[in-house]
Amino acid sequence: MVTDQNRRSLLKAALFGACAPVMPLGCASQPASKPALIGCAIKGRDKFSAVIADRNGQAIKQLPLPGRGHGVAVHPKLTQATAFARRPGTFLMVFDYQSGEMIQLRPADDQRHYYGHGVYSNGGEWLYVTEGERGTSRGIIGVYDVAHQYQKVAEFSGFGIGPHEVIVMPDDRLVIGVGGVHTNGREPLNLDSMQPSLTYLTPNGTILEQVALPDHHLSIRHLAHDGSDTVLCGQQYRGKPEDYPSLLAMHTQGGALKPLLAEPEQWARFNHYIASIAANEQWILATSPRGSCYGIWSKQTGELVELAALPDASGVVAYGDEFQVSSGSALVINHRYPERAVQHVSNVQWDNHWSPIA
């Protein structure tokens, strides 16, 4: 339920939602750099923002958020993007990434909360958002009509509880990382009976396929695809603290989930959690802010080829054969494997995920 305090926070953010350039530029000034990345950031104690950055991860504009953000969806045609509150989230914010102006700040519906992720349809008509029913964690994909002020027009459900990330495939199928965890706030309540899955839906919400890993304590959460038919899913392990199973898997619809390979002591470095994932033709990169590291796997063999330390490793995007990784320590890594990674300092304390602007 959206409380009066939540609504006051949203109104305050709306009143101060104009663009906040990092350099001493007015909102009407044109930045020298072209917007290329969007992510959420921490600006200080209880201060959060959505950040529009250039190709090197340097901020161009920042928009205040009423709470901590998580993922960002970028429209495929319009200069619009949507930032989502960290779960259990009470808001989503739509903004223009060229002008830096907020378009809409929308509170979650009564008895609903946001899980922190969403994605636009390939044609840009719809915004699909992972949501949950308060009190039960029943999983919902909220469908919002972009052309009509992001009105909610449908809800898809019936696929399980605790959905986290949703992505859209090139052929318009939706894929959901269903975590399977019932929570009260952020407290898990059903670890013994959780049922995570990787779920495929038609654009109209019909379930096409659901697959799961053998260990039901592997909560499927973050997703990516390789530009074709392969889906990558990253897990959060909710089992015994001393166990270190594979936290990353590949899947093509109709087949089995294939865990990627690393030694238990290498998986231990990820501290039971995979955050952002990106892939190109040869390599897969996944980050772990809890483990302050990232790993690179061979897409062909499924084997870990590099494990690197990065404090609070968070977002990742792929530009051809080069990966770019963000961190909460304001470092940005450019890595064209097997070449040596190049590190530089950003002007942003990045938080959670990055989304590229096409």
UniProtKB/TrEMBL annotation:
Signal sequence range: none
PROSITE patterns named among the record's database cross-references: TAT
Taxonomic superkingdom: Bacteria
Pfam families the UniProt entry points to: DUF1513
InterPro entries associated with the record: Quino_amine_DH_bsu (IPR011044), TAT_signal (IPR006311), UCP028101 (IPR008311), WD40/YVTN_repeat-like_dom_sf (IPR015943)
Protein name: DUF1513 domain-containing protein
Lineage, highest ranks first: Bacteria, Pseudomonadati, Pseudomonadota, Gammaproteobacteria, Vibrionales
